[in-house]
């Protein structure tokens, strides 16, 4: 089975600064999708950003961007100009193309310091 | 994106009882997913529920413990049976965004505490 590893249980960032959350995964497949989800204290999981493995260009959504290194099986999330509302648990997730099951990492708890 | 609601949002139950969690989606979806998130842990898929067929359970989860119903394309229930304190978790319902999308959307979750 695929595994997703988030090696940073907790991270903190000063408001307006930039922070990078790490994620690595293990797979033998070549076609897959990667996701970052955000889970604020209210518990609702929200999709932050997604990346198709066949695309070399890194995905970007406003202040959120990824650094996708397919050969290294690395998928980090960069949050620029951090805001207090960014404080949440962030989960990295993997999904094989053609399958429905998601594999989630253990999460990184992000604190934003005013 | 799909809008998903769950009932109840939280509950405290006694050991040995059962709780049924409801999941309602604002659009018709073929597949619905049930996840468990134990305290401080990541999400673990319990089962996939297709309308009109029996749910498919992941390793470590069985129908007798987590029976699932899927009566139509917008609704599903998950029952946690004969509960023990180890069942204390957040249970999340999830759906795919659509046949042409690879993204899943999640409900707000049900926080279950078993005493």
How is the secondary structure organized here?
The complex is a heterodimer of chains A (114) and B (115).
Chain A: E1 3-5, E2 10-14, E3 19-21, E4 24-26, E5 32-39, E6 46-52, E7 60-61, E8 64-69, E9 74-79, E10 88-96, E11 102-104, E12 108-113
Parallel strand pairs in A: 2-12
Antiparallel strand pairs in A: 1-4, 3-9, 5-6, 5-10, 7-8, 8-9, 10-11, 10-12
Chain B: E1 4-7, E2 10-13, E3 19-25, E4 31-37, E5 43-50, E6 56-57, E7 68-72, E8 75-80, E9 89-96, E10 104-106, E11 110-114
Parallel strand pairs in B: 2-11
Antiparallel strand pairs in B: 1-3, 3-8, 4-5, 4-9, 5-6, 7-8, 9-10, 9-11
What does this structure look like?
The complex is a heterodimer of chains A (114) and B (115). Chain A is mostly beta strands. Chain A is 0% helix and 54% strand. Chain A is built from no helices and 12 strands. Chain A has strands at residues 3-5, 10-14, 19-21, 24-26, 32-39, 46-52, 60-61, 64-69, 74-79, 88-96, 102-104, 108-113. In chain A, a hairpin with a 2-residue loop joins strand 7 and strand 8 (64-69). The termini of chain A are far apart. In chain A, 34% of the residues are buried. Chain B is mainly β and 115 residues long. Chain B has no helices and 11 strands. In chain B, strands 2, 4, 5, 6, 9, 10 and 11 form a 7-stranded mixed β-sheet that branches. Chain B has a 4-stranded antiparallel β-sheet with strand order 1-3-8-7, with no helix packed on it. In chain B, strand 5 and strand 6 (56-57) form a beta hairpin. Chain B starts with a strand and ends with a strand. The model of chain B has no long low-confidence stretch (mean pLDDT 91). The chains are: A mainly beta (114), B mainly beta (115). Chain A binds chain B through residues 33, 35, 37, 42-47, 50, 52, 91, 95, 97, 100-102, 104-107, and chain B through 1, 31, 33, 41-45, 48, 58, 90, 92, 94, 96, 102-109, 111.
Give a short overview:
The complex is a heterodimer of chains A (114) and B (115). Chain A is mainly β and 114 residues long.
